[in-house]
Amino acid sequence: MNPSRRSGPLSRASRFFYEKSNLVTGLLATSVFTGYLALVLTGRGTTFAVADSSVRSLGTSLGFGQAEIVAFLAERSDQMILAYIEFNQVWDTLFGLIYGAMYVVWVSVLYNPYSQKVGILNLLPFGQVFFDWIENFALSALSSQYLADGTISSSIALLASTSSAIKWGFSLLVYALILVGIVMRIARAVKLRSQR
Fold this sequence. Notes:
Layout: H1 3-6, H2 9-20, H3 23-45, H4 66-74, H5 78-111, H6 115-118, H7 125-149, H8 154-194
Helix pairs in contact: 2-5, 3-5, 5-7, 5-8, 7-8
């Protein structure tokens, strides 16, 4: 039986990124990421921004409690909260897909020579995206509940906070993975040059 038929969807996705990722796709993905951040996401974030507020968006915090969520929502108008819900459900969700794909491409580029050993490690950035999406939709649910009756669910608040902390944990792992990959590729290039 063909090994590719035995492999699951994660293995196939991993191989796809190893095969299709190169310096050009990495630079293209980075350009899309930078353009979206500068031209779309930052502008959308201003629709619920409060001047002199200590927290511009809960998703940028490394975890947060129920009191922080209530304080964040209390200082915003209903229109701003609606804009925040849209931001989480649409614009930040799309941003997760964009940065996730960019990181997967770069990890795939760096670890391509070691793909047989590291396997689906190149898909690790999608873990960050997954928990980012859970956080986004939990925050949207909390915001909708707050608009409806002025309260928030403690269990959904815990889900949002926990997902945020895990998201940032994955982010640190991804950065470490990229840093290690750069060092490995430099060491490999030096070794290959010395053997010539």
